[in-house]
Structure formats: structure tokens, C-alpha cells
């Protein structure tokens, strides 16, 4: 591919663009272009290598990840301009109807929407997304049948960093996008012993090997919750599944970054409180955008927070469990140079628990960044759909 390929004059007639899949060389070119924006914590070659690595991890591997470009079909691959680009990740999802019946299907997560600076403001991202919204309706899915079809595409989701209107105009409706932020607290301040594996703490750290069982338990509970939500609201309810692959995608991405930034990977992936059947747990990931030079925005994200027996546990037991888990998260944030811990969209019991836990925290309604947005492909309108467990684990 020629070095000046990006400067090929794009066609001016709107109808001559196509949405298509990039070649390997075009994918690399896209990653090179996005490095200054999304990879300043890494050297250029490490960022590109990370993106290659991220095509091989759970969720993305075996065709789970798809890259897309908007280009000029009159030019051959590798010689055509990349006018705008993005990628999608296939995720498992469940849908419940108001009668409480639950079906399995697919949700596509969209990320990395990007137009090179020289092409901005000409409508290319609009065009890319309009075409993509339509394409994803059937992408990797089977045509809709009456009976449950595990390959039916229910929806596509994205997390807008450019506010609420751009994607809403194209059909992705903004959903609740709030979080609660907890400051880092050192082990010395909190009386916890991170260097000793949190020995003596009331909550226990979660390691890689414990995730599989926790994800299975979570999925079982979430199926019930989605069914209950649909029955009680009389609306269709949907949830992305926080299954092991979904969580591992975050953790392996995190490991890659940690290895480059710290030369080692963390062992504490979350924390759990209580005995089986009455547990509270959270799984988390550490995100570094500016590396250690520019720490603002470096965040410990609680990917998913679960209360195992919402009916059977007393609220003060849940409050204690949650508090002990967050204390470990705060300590980890200090250990790994993070600015805060974030938990997205706590609702119902968890909202009350956050308010009642007594820890210093701030509630934030996001207006410009990570706006959770959803386009519905099933029956009815997007506005008629309840998004259950709209938490950080779904982000990509
Ligand atoms: C956002 C981006 C993809 C838009 O690409 P583009 O090809 O210039 O977009 P279009 O020409 O189709 O549309 C321009 C629209 O984007 C809006 N826009 C661009 N950047 C924006 C920003 N930071 N905040 C809010 N709106 C923005 C413009 O206001 C304009 O709105 P309009 O459609 O109502 O006129 C491009 O600016 C970009 O790559 N930015 C850096 C990466 C990024 O932020 N990606 C989005 C991640 S969710």
C-alpha cells in the first residue's frame, strides 16, 4: 500500500461509497491513525500490536470481531481511501417478552468509530453508521424465525464519546449513562493489606480461576431478572450477557496494558463477600489512557456488581458486603496509580446500597462521554425496550 493512500481524493457523489471489510493492510493503517487518540499510553508499535492481539482473545476471536470501513468501490483494496472506520464485537444477549419468556440471541457492540482528520466534516461517519446500523440487523445472524433462535440479532449498542445527538439521529437511542465514583484509598489509610493478599479483610480478592463459576451464577440470575423486568414493566427487556468471554475480553486487554506499563499483571480481578448462595461480588478492570504521565481518566471500572440473593439477604448484609468490596477496589486503585473507581448505573437495591454505604463517593450523570446507546432490531421500537444490567462490562 502506498504511503499517500489516505490522501486519495474521495468521490463527491454520495452514492459511490460502500461499507466494506478492510484488508489486513488497511486494518493496520486504521490502527496507526487512531494511535495518537486512543493509545498514548503505549508506543505506536505496541498499540498496533495490541490491536492485533485483541483479534485473538475471547469474544473477538473466531470472527467475533469485525472491522468496517467506508470507502470508494471504484478503487482496488489497499489503494482506496479509508474515509471512516469502526469495529463491531458479537456478544451474547437475552431478550424477555412481557409474558416472561426468555430467548437467546446476539447483540453487536460497536466501537472505535473514527474519521481521519483530513476527511472530517464531510458526512463520512454519518454514512458509515447509517449503513452499519442496517447491516448489523442481520450480520452473523439467521433470518428471524418464530421460535427461539440463538443467532437472531436483537440490537446493536455503542458508547458515544461525542454526546447524545450524533448517534441518536442515526437510530441509537441514549440510555441511562451515570456512574458513581469512589476515590482511591491506600492500604495504610483503610487498614487493608494489599501486599499480603488482603489477608484479614472481610471480602476476598477474586482471581482469574474464580471467574468462570461467578459468570455462570451471574448469567443464571440475570435471566431471572430480565424475565421479571419484562413481566413487571410490560415491556420487552434485553441484556448483554456478562459471560466469561465478555469479562475475559476486558481482562486480557487490561493485561496487555499492564504488562507494557508496569511490566507485570495484577492478580486481584475483583472481590467477593459472603458464602455461596448469599454472596455479593464485583469484577473489575483497570483502564489507562494517558499512561502514568497523564493520570487523569485512569480508572478502575467495576465491570459488573452482583448480589446473589436479592430476596433472601438483608439489606444491611448487602451494604456490608458492598462496602468491603469497594474498600478493596479503592486500595487496588491506589496500588495501580488510578484516579478513581467507577460503577456504572447502579439501580434498585444497588443504588440504595451505594447511598447507604457511608463511603465517600460522587454520583455523575455523563452528558458527553460513554453514552450507552442502543438500536433495537426486534419487534417494537427502541424506546419501548428496557436495557437491564447496563453496566461497564458491555462497553467496547
Ligand atoms: C466523531 C467523528 C467520527 C466524526 O466523523 P466525521 O466523518 O467528521 O463525521 P460527519 O461528517 O459524518 O458528521 C459530523 C458530525 O459529527 C459531529 N461531531 C464531530 N465531533 C464531535 C464531537 N467531539 N462532539 C460532538 N459532535 C461531534 C459534528 O458536530 C457533526 O454533526 P452533524 O452531523 O449534526 O452536522 C470524527 O470527528 C472523529 O474521528 N473523531 C475522533 C474520534 C472520535 O471521537 N470518535 C467517536 C467515538 S464515539
Number of domains: 2
Secondary structure class reads alpha+beta
What is the CATH class designation of the largest domain?
Answer: Alpha Beta
| Poorly predicted runs | 1-7
Task: Please characterize this protein's 3D structure.
The protein has helices at 24-38, 44-53, 124-136, 165-168, 187-190, 211-233, 244-262, 315-335, 348-356, and strands spanning 18-20, 65-71, 84-96, 102-114, 153-160, 173-174, 178-182, 204-205, 236-240, 270-273, 280-287, 299-307, 340-344, 362-365, 371-376, 385-387. With 396 residues, the protein is an alpha+beta fold. Helix 1 packs across helix 2 and helix 8 (315-335) packs across helix 9. 41% of the residues are buried. The longest helix has 23 residues, at 211-233. The strands form two sheets. Strands 1, 2, 3, 4, 5, 6, 9, 15 and 16 form a nine-stranded mixed β-sheet that branches. It has a seven-stranded mixed β-sheet with strand order 8-10-11-12-13-7-14. It is globular and about 65 Å long. It folds into two domains: 5-174, Aminopeptidase, CATH 3.40.630.30; 178-366, Aminopeptidase.
Amino acid at each position: 500500500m502506498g504511503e499517500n493512500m489516505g490522501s486519495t481524493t474521495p468521490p463527491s457523489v454520495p452514492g459511490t461509497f460502500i461499507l466494506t471489510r478492510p484488508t489486513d493492510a488497511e486494518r493496520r493503517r486504521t490502527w496507526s491513525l487512531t494511535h495518537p487518540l486512543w493509545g498514548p499510553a503505549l508506543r505506536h508499535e505496541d498499540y498496533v500490536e495490541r490491536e492485533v492481539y485483541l483479534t485473538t482473545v475471547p469474544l473477538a476471536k473466531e470472527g467475533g470481531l469485525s472491522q468496517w470501513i467506508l470507502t470508494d468501490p471504484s478503487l482496488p483494496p489497499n489503494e482506496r481511501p479509508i474515509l471512516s472506520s469502526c469495529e463491531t464485537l458479537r456478544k451474547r444477549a437475552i431478550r424477555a417478552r412481557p409474558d416472561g419468556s426468555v430467548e437467546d440471541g446476539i447483540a453487536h457492540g460497536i466501537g472505535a468509530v473514527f474519521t481521519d482528520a483530513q476527511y472530517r466534516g464531510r458526512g463520512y461517519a454519518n454514512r458509515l453508521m447509517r449503513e452499519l446500523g442496517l447491516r448489523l440487523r442481520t450480520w452473523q445472524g439467521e433470518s428471524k424465525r418464530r421460535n427461539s433462535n440463538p443467532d437472531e440479532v436483537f440490537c446493536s449498542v455503542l458508547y458515544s464519546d461525542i454526546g447524545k445527538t450524533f448517534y441518536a439521529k442515526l437510530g441509537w437511542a441514549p440510555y441511562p449513562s451515570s456512574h458513581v465514583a469512589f476515590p482511591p484509598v491506600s492500604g495504610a489509610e483503610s487498614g487493608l493489606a494489599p501486599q499480603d493478599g488482603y489477608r484479614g479483610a472481610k471480602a476476598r480478592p477474586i482471581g482469574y480461576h474464580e471467574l468462570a463459576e461467578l459468570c455462570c451464577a451471574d448469567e443464571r440470575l440475570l435471566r431471572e431478572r430480565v424475565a421479571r423486568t419484562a413481566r413487571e414493566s410490560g415491556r420487552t427487556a434485553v441484556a448483554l450477557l456478562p459471560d466469561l468471554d465478555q469479562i475475559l475480553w476486558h481482562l486480557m486487554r487490561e493485561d496487555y496494558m499492564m504488562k507494557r506499563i508496569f511490566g507485570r499483571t495484577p492478580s486481584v480481578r475483583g472481590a467477593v463477600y459472603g458464602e455461596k448462595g448469599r454472596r455479593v461480588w464485583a469484577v473489575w478492570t483497570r483502564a489507562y489512557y494517558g499512561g502514568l504521565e497523564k493520570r487523569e481518566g485512569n480508572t478502575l471500572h467495576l465491570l459488573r456488581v452482583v448480589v446473589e440473593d436479592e430476596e433472601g439477604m438483608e439489606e444491611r448484609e448487602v451494604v456490608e458486603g458492598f462496602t468491603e468490596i469497594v474498600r478493596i477496589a479503592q486500595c487496588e486503585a491506589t496500588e495501580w496509580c488510578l484516579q478513581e473507581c467507577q460503577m456504572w448505573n447502579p439501580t434498585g437495591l444497588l443504588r440504595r446500597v451505594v447511598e447507604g454505604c457511608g463511603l465517600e463517593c460522587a454520583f455523575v450523570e455523563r452528558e458527553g462521554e460513554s453514552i450507552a446507546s442502543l438500536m433495537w432490531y426486534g419487534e417494537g421500537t427502541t424506546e419501548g425496550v428496557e436495557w437491564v444490567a447496563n453496566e461497564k462490562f458491555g462497553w467496547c
